[in-house]
Amino acid sequence: MTIIHKHFADNTSEHSVATQLRRQRFDVFMEMLKDLPRPVKILDIGGSQGYWEMMADRTLLDREFQITLLNIENQAVSIPSFTAAIGDGRAMPEFADKQFDIVFSNSTIEHVGSFEDQKRMADEVRRVGKRYYIQTPNLFFPVEPHFVFPLFQFFPIAFRAWLLQHFDLGWYTKIPDYQKALHEVKSIRLLHRAEFKQLFPEAIIFEEKFYGMVKSFVSFTP
After folding, report:
1. Fewer CB atoms inside 10 A, N or C side of the chain?
2. Which CATH homologous superfamily contains domain 3-144+188-220?
3. Name one Pfam family in it (predicted).
């Protein structure tokens, strides 16, 4: 992990820029929940218990929330109000219509595949949740948030794979095999504002800014 990554993008660090911005976003989320009856039933697509422990007071987690974590691999949970489920945010037949008070997802929709895959996830979010709060990084922010490299998302994809073959980048240690490196860089599809609005046309879009530049978007329904 580079010094830049540790300071800027490491969301496991209490003092990183990423964590501070996440806390600000979480305040917006908490404002949405203030008038909902307790316990609030939350579906977190792509989330972890550790995120909630960092963001929320333990009393809230124990008494006021019932959180289901949906991931493609099992997540360890140790707090009774958390449930781990294995599934795919693009198709969630295991959940009923409007089963959750709110669907929450932080930096996940850019990982699910093509724009059509992202649309499938958006449709499922609307179906299973009475409201939602979905965050994603901005395509046009100058530092790519996963590889933590300036303008990385605009390089030709073969060059991106070459860089990942030869250097540790952000969250990734270098991957010497070209096809594996190519798979990793192709697995992330960042969104710009117009696309995000197309996915969630009925939502309010909150722009998270860093030194005047839009770092990420949050689509939410009040």
Report:
1. C
2. Vaccinia Virus protein VP39 (3.40.50.150)
3. Methyltransf_11
